[in-house]
């Protein structure tokens, strides 16, 4: 056993220090980024925010709205092929803004293959809760060999050495985040996790050193958190809870005590397991929870709110483009860890020494 003493930080532990700026208005800020991916060599231009590949947020209704603003959606892997076909037929442009999600099981990989062969899907998201297994790395390598021109995002991991391993195995983008999700209970159930801001800072450095990219996944609860993730070095930011509760999410509106809600559950929750597997296998514990989110209406309002917040952050630090945000950021720490608090008892001891 070993203890790492260095303090790691979450979004809530920092604020971004304002800087002198020559920008006249937030209208001048460009939130679009252009990337040429390391392996696929595809060039993509858009606003690098991605709706999470969860049942509620990874829908085509979401993709149709987000694509208008050049944001992306990682599709829920349970969406059937017919639905893919119908949506791609209606709007071929969607292919620039959606990831097809796969796990590492045979059934998932076959569904992915069908989507790629029949619909020429460009972006793949290989998503597992624990990106530290050899099987996961092997699947990323296999997918890279099989689909050399497709852009692959793979995760989740939270450490620099595993970020490097995934990029060297063929991932263009590494997805980072274990435990920060709004409906995730991994930290409680397993004790495993990593504060998200530090995970992004450490993994972005590793990814960029190999010409790879990073997607910060989970833990954003307000637009300022999205800005902090980009400022920490994320190239993409994935959002679940912030985009949940809208018309474009799957599920009905629920009425309780005169208030409207929409259901939102974690993909490892008992509710998701029962829905997709028919049961909670007795060797697994649920690592997600279900919540009823106050109904938020159309997602476009929330998207504009997030983009407005991000533009304002850029204005505060003088970044004319989102690309410049991390270079122009100084974070200030605003919280103390419990063991750092100077207690009256310590003060008493210091005075009597
Ligand atoms: P949020 O934006 O809601 O904070 O986080 C979204 C992310 O939480 C997802 O993209 C995914 O990585 C993670 N997530 C979704 N469902 C679950 C779950 O049931 N358990 C865990 N541990 N993480 C989840």
Fold topology:
Layout: E1 14-16, E2 33-36, E3 43-46, E4 49-51, H1 60-68, E5 72-74, H2 81-90, E6 98-102, H3 106-119, E7 123-127, H4 134-146, E8 151-157, H5 160-168, E9 173-176, H6 186-190, H7 196-209, E10 213-217, H8 223-231, E11 236-239, E12 253-256, E13 259-265, H9 270-277, E14 290-294, H10 299-317, E15 331-333, H11 344-352
Parallel strand pairs: 4-5, 4-11, 5-6, 6-7, 7-8, 8-9, 9-10, 10-11
Antiparallel strand pairs: 1-15, 2-3, 12-13, 13-14
Helix pairs in contact: 2-3, 5-7, 8-10
Bound molecules: guanosine-5'-monophosphate.
Number of H/I helices: 11
Distinct small-molecule ligands in the complex: guanosine-5'-monophosphate
Number of strands: 15
Residue share in helices? Answer: 25-40%
SS-based class: alpha/beta
Order of helices and strands: EEEEHEHEHEHEHEHHEHEEEHEHEH
Distance between the termini: 35 Å
In what order do the strands lie side by side in the largest sheet? 4-5-6-7-8-9-10-11
Biggest sheet overview: 8 strands, parallel, barrel
Average of pLDDT: 94
Radius of gyration: 21 Å
- Return residue spans where pLDDT drops below 50 for at least 5 consecutive residues: none
From the spread of the alpha carbons, the general shape counts as: globular
Give the DSSP E fraction (strand runs of 2 or more residues). 15-25%
Question: Could you walk me through the main structural features you see in this protein, from its secondary elements to its overall organization?
Answer:
This protein is an alpha/beta fold and 353 residues long. Helix content is 34%, strand content 19%. The protein has eleven helices and 15 strands. It has helices spanning 60-68, 81-90, 106-119, 134-146, 160-168, 186-190, 196-209, 223-231, 270-277, 299-317, 344-352, and strands at residues 14-16, 33-36, 43-46, 49-51, 72-74, 98-102, 123-127, 151-157, 173-176, 213-217, 236-239, 253-256, 259-265, 290-294, 331-333. The strands form four sheets. An eight-stranded parallel beta barrel has the order 4-5-6-7-8-9-10-11, surrounded by six helices. The longest helix is centred in the C-terminal third of the chain and has 19 residues, at 299-317. The mean pLDDT is 94. Residues 52, 54, 129, 156, 177, 180-184, 186, 217-220, 238-242, 266-269, 287-288 line the site of guanosine-5'-monophosphate.
């Amino acid at each position: 056993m070993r203890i790492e003493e260095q303090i790691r930080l979450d979004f809530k532990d920092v604020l971004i220090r304002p800087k002198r700026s020559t920008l006249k208005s937030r209208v001048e800020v460009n939130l679009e980024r252009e990337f040429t991916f390391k392996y696929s060599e595809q060039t993509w231009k858009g606003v690098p925010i991605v709706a999470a590949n969860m049942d509620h947020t990874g829908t085509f209704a979401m993709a149709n709205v987000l694509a208008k603003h050049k944001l992306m959606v990682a599709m829920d892997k349970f969406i059937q092929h017919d639905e893919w076909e119908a949506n791609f037929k209606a709007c071929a442009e969607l292919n620039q803004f959606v990831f097809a999600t796969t796990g590492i099981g045979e059934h998932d990989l076959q569904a992915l293959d069908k989507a790629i062969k029949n619909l020429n899907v460009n972006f793949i998201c290989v998503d597992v809760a624990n990106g530290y297994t050899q099987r996961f790395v092997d699947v990323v390598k296999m997918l890279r060999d099989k689909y050399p021109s497709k852009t692959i995002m793979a995760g989740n991991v939270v450490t620099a050495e595993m970020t490097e391993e995934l990029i060297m195995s063929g991932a263009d983008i590494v997805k980072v985040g274990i435990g920060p999700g709004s409906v995730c209970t991994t930290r409680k159930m397993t004790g495993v996790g990593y504060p998200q801001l530090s995970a992004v800072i450490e993994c972005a450095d590793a990814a960029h050193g190999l010409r790879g990219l990073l997607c910060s996944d989970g833990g954003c609860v307000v637009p300022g958190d999205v800005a902090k993730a980009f400022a920490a070095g994320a190239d993409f930011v994935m959002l679940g809870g912030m985009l949940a509760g809208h018309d474009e999410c799957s599920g009905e509106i629920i009425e309780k005590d005169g208030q409207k809600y929409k259901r939102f559950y974690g993909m490892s929750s008992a509710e998701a397991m029962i829905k997709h597997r028919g049961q909670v296998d007795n060797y697994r514990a649920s690592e997600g929870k279900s919540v009823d989110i106050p109904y938020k209406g159309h997602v476009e309002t929330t998207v504009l709110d997030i983009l407005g917040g991000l533009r304002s952050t850029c204005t505060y630090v003088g970044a004319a483009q989102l690309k410049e945000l991390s270079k122009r950021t100084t974070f200030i720490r605003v919280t103390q860890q419990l063991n750092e608090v100077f207690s009256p008892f310590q003060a008493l001891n210091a005075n009597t020494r």
